[in-house]
Amino acid sequence: MMNEENKMDDVTPTTVRSESAFSGISNETEAIPTTVAPEIANPSLPPLTGPEIRILRPSKYMRSLAFLIPNSIIPRHKKSDILEVKFESYTEARTCNVLYTRQNPRSERAYLDLRQINPSPWERHLVGPVVVYPPSRFVNDYNKSKPVGLENTSLRFGEGRFTFSVDDKELAVANPTFRTYQGMVILDASIKDAGWVKIQKKLDGFEMRLRDHSRVLSMEMIGPDLLTTYARTTSDHGHRRMLAAVAPADHVKPVVQELVFRGKFRILSRQLGSVDVFTLEGDLEALEYVEQQLRATQTIDRFRKVKGDLAEKIFEQITRPLGLGFLADHPHNKDRWRVGSARTGPDFLVNSLASDEWLYVEVKWWNDDEDALETANEQALNDLDKYPECFGRKVDGSIIAVLDWKDGKPIRFMVARADRKQRR
Question: Please, what sign has the CA dihedral across residues 89, 94, 98, 99?
Fold first, then answer.
């Protein structure tokens, strides 16, 4: 769980599975038919003309709904292109919505994730037109509708490269890439020495987040340095950090110590499904210790590292109640100077007490649980492909475990077997 990489592509499953993470039983759900009766159409809408519009209703898509958009209304495009899709209700007068997706041109359809609007599965929509959304339009849209607190920033795109300005001072943008996620279009990039940020366009406008999903509240230049204010949660009052123009030398290794966890957690209840959800309870010492460790962090990188350490320690405490035996901690770590969640390779090696299967474990604690589950699944499968054996024995599979702990809500661990069918 060293690298908190973001989801890079929309997943396009053909069926949706509802099953226990540790069972061999599944129920496949058929897509909802998309035929409609035209006599109930919204009379305030113009008549349907041209081949670029279709009447569709949402189909099941992972844990959400999506439009399955046929190739017949999708323009010619490259696999890397972003597609902009406009749609509105077929039966009710509403504002036109705009969401984004990507598609392999060889596929028969494109999947448009509708998680942002959460429509009824029976609601019909006029979908189209679908157009290619180039980087220049993203830049223009950002400059016309900048996030609150970031009005002093701007984007430019020309001659195949981006620049980002704060207080009219241009900062270099390195490794820019576009992707879509949950209907958003997202620009991932490294700005100056601020590290990776993501600028995402949602239904309600733009926002900027750091790599661990902390929301950026403001940016300002203080001499040659960039001062960033960010919030770790929606209720956070905001933290500040100075990002110097010169990055530390690569050969300097951090001086860190292994986390010694205090207190105990136990499982209160469990809900089995395609992702098993375990509600936890911590004693007073454990809760105070977690809060103390997080409050003591001074930088966003340290905060992210401590969250990873704590999540791994909590998972260790519940392995046996989960029916797992603990075999090894980061069995394939190659850098001895690394400790805790910064170590490389799978987080743990465990065995099933029921079947004696050997399994790797990938643990995460992010703000976005959906992103964490999908990224953990990809990382767990990559580790399994890279390290098919451990201690001379074949490893049978991988488990992903995502800690969901937000202010005022129950503490939960979401646990599932890594699934190649859900691979991005």
Answer: negative
Closest CA relative to residue 318, chosen from 280, 276, 261, 277: 280
Q: What is the pLDDT of residue 9?
A: 40
> How many Cβ atoms are within 10 Å of 300's Cβ, its own excluded?
18
State the CB neighbour count (10 A cutoff) for residue 332: 15
Burial of residue 114 (CB within 10 Å: 0-12, 13-18, 19+) is buried
- Distance CA(172)–CA(184), nearest Å, equals 24
* Cα separation values, 405 from 1, 166, 417, Å: 17, 34, 21
What are the CA-CA distances from residue 147 to residues 79, 143, 152, 173 (Å)?
29, 9, 10, 19
In whole angstroms, give the CA distance from residue 79 to residue 2.
29
From CA 319, how far away is CA 339, in angstroms rounded? Answer: 21
CA 44 to chain centroid, in Å, comes to: 38
Burial class (CB in 10 A: 0-12, 13-18, 19+), 142: buried
Torsion angles phi and psi, residue 65, rounded to 5 = -125, 160
Q: What is the reported pLDDT for 160?
A: 81
Dihedral sign, Cα of residue 202, residue 145, residue 130, residue 117: positive
Q: What is the DSSP letter of 71?
A: G
The amino acid at 334: K
CB 223: neighbour CB atoms within 10 A?
A: 8
Domain ranges of the chain: 31-132, 135-243, 265-422
Let me know: does 90 contact 126? Beta carbons within 8 Å: yes
Q: Residue 339 has which token pair?
A: 């400790």
Q: Could you tell me the two tokens for 44?
A: 């305030």
| Series of mean pLDDT values for 10-residue runs along the chain (424 residues) | 40 36 35 36 44 79 85 90 89 79 91 87 86 94 93 90 89 89 92 79 92 84 76 54 36 43 91 93 92 86 90 93 90 82 92 92 92 92 94 93 90 94 74
pTM: 0.48
According to DSSP, the residues that pair with 126 across neighbouring strands are: 55, 88
Tell me the DSSP string of 73-102. GSPS--TT--EEEEEEESSS--PPEEEEE-
Does domain 265-422 match CATH 3.40.1350? Answer: yes
- Whole-angstrom CA distances from 187 to 145, 177, 208, 245 are 15, 6, 10, 22
Angle between helical axes of 300-317 and 284-295 (0-180°, round to 10): 160
Residue type (1 letter), 88: E
Task: Name the nearest CA neighbour of 322 among 283, 289, 280, 290.
Answer: 280
